[in-house]
Amino acid sequence: MKEDDFCSERKLSRQEFGELRHKTISCYKVLPKRGSDLLEMLQTDVLSTGCYGIDELLQGGLHPGEVTEISGETATGKTQGEEDVMNRIRIAKCFDVYAVMEFIEDLRDHLENKDKDDNVYTNVKLIIIDSFAAIFSPLLGVTQTQGHSLMITLTRILRNLAKEYNIAVLVINAAIASNPNNPISVFSSTKSKPSLGMSWTFMPDVQLYLTHCVENKIENEKNIQQNYVYTNRKEIEVIMKPKICEVHRSRNGQMGKWCIFYMGGNELFTHDDII
Questions:
Q1: Residue 213's closest CA among 53, 72, 62?
Q2: Are residues 48 and 88 in the same domain?
Q3: Are the beta carbons of 158 and 124 closer than 8 angstroms?
Q4: pTM value?
Q5: Burial readout 77-114 (b: 16 or more C-beta within 10 A, e: otherwise)
Q6: Highest averaged pLDDT of the listed ranges 33-47, 115-129, 256-270
């Protein structure tokens, strides 16, 4: 509420309002902040992936309140990218969708009760599911509507939890063949696409796809010649062949953008990460 509206509604002069404001600040010993400013601070608490190029595609990193999917071909860094954003973690071994749902509900209970006895639950910033394909592929098929329904239900549960508690959600997916090519990819020679079918395609807020290098478009990319490089964190061994990360879909208008990255140890990095 604006100052003029507050004074008018309560029939206060500007001087009386100033005195009231001063007394309130004196009692609480902190400067007041607008609720809209606090909300903006929460929504901009973005988690870096550790890779400059991928952060650029995500407009800073993994955003709280959003579901981000990383899918891609074998040995393109899906798991390395996931491990790069983890700090303090709690691992739950869930071998089917019902176990995942049970864990999410248990997490919600801890968050609602503000469990102070467990440091992991007091400051949850990120949920990673690796992988959606593993728990849903056995349930999906032409006649298996229950699998699609469960996938939609779990995604809604994750999105609601993410928005309510300002948590980022990262979902890892697999790849399947796409012949003659992937129509969404900016590279015509991409022969694969994310698994889980069309019902999944529009569920994530952002869909990243990782592939091995394709086409002449990237042949002029400056190659890394040395076997070891230094990033802003440590010395890492370079796995020489570059990979591509592209935005298949995004609610933020980044669709079609891509970057080249490299793998080293458990890290993904671009030229901009090297010091």
A1: 72
A2: yes
A3: no
A4: 0.73
A5: bbebbbbbbeeeeeeeebeebeebbebbeebeeebeee
A6: 256-270
